[in-house]
Amino acid sequence: MASLWSYWRHGGMPKQKFDTVGGMSTYASELTKRNPTAALTADGADTGTLRIDLTWRMRASSDFDRAARPSLWRHPLSVFKPAEVQGHSQGLANVDFDLACLYELKSGAKGVVQSLGGLVGDFNDPPYLKLSGDDRFGSASGESIYVNLDKKDEFKRLLVFVYVYDGVPAFARADVVVTLVAADGKNIEIGLTDRSTQARSCAVALIEPHKGHLVARREVRYVYGFQSEIDRLYGWGMSWGRGRKPSRLRA
């Protein structure tokens, strides 16, 4: 399926592409400033699972600073390196983008699902969100948050965000895409294209109920701090402290 992610990896970005997989029509669309919202559930497709995926790759230095391109005379083998390797060779190999989600339930419960602190959530019990995987290299398998749509009426609001856990701020040097994969096969992509050089976190999408369905709105708002600053920006009102990743994230 053609997508914003495949465009950044291989070139050519259509606004919308349709495919048929196993007899089911699926498609990818992009949320933009001009078209910032999309329904995640619809009549007949409002149960099951919503999957939120994070994929990213470091770009070659030539993509963001042609003057910094290594000389082929001095580094002749660099022409054979893929873009990801070239990007990581610029002292950014330790960058670690992470996917997370602030939640507020209609019961009043608030919290966050994230790898930091091992707060992976629960799919069948509150908060009805589960983080799986912790990709530290931006591979296609990435990391995902699963949302239990059978409990969609329990959600007051969800805020999907991405943060740099380790390494220097690198949003300006990376191609980062968050994809919302709906139960009916619809793929809604949000590219973090409004890059900020020093930002360490980015609020990506706000998901709220509207007329009985869940609707996603593109945010792409960068902050220079971490979770507590995103909390203040959206008024979650939680207390924050220092946290660390567990040595192994439970699936």
Q: What do these coordinates show?
A:
With 251 residues, the chain is mainly beta. It has a single domain (4-66, 76-234), classed as sav2460 like domains (Lipoxygenase-1), CATH 2.60.60.30. 10% of the residues lie in helices and 39% in strands. The chain is built from four helices and 14 strands. The chain has helices spanning 4-10, 61-64, 83-88, 227-234; strands at 17-21, 24-30, 37-39, 49-58, 96-105, 110-113, 121-122, 129-132, 143-148, 155-166, 174-181, 186-191, 201-210, 213-223. The strands form two sheets. The protein has an eight-stranded mixed sheet with strand order 1-2-12-11-4-9-8-7. Strands 3-14-13-10-5-6 form a six-stranded antiparallel sheet. Strand 5 (96-105) and strand 6 form a beta hairpin. The protein is globular, with a radius of gyration of 19 Å. The model is unreliable at 10-25, 62-92 and 135-141 (pLDDT under 50).
Q: Brief description of this entry?
A:
By secondary structure, the protein is mainly beta. The protein has a single domain, classed as sav2460 like domains (Lipoxygenase-1, Sandwich), CATH 2.60.60.
Fold blueprint:
Elements: H1 4-10, E1 17-21, E2 24-30, E3 37-39, E4 49-58, H2 61-64, H3 83-88, E5 96-105, E6 110-113, E7 121-122, E8 129-132, E9 143-148, E10 155-166, E11 174-181, E12 186-191, E13 201-210, E14 213-223, H4 227-234
Parallel strand pairs: 2-12
Antiparallel strand pairs: 1-2, 3-14, 4-9, 4-11, 5-6, 5-10, 7-8, 8-9, 10-13, 11-12, 13-14
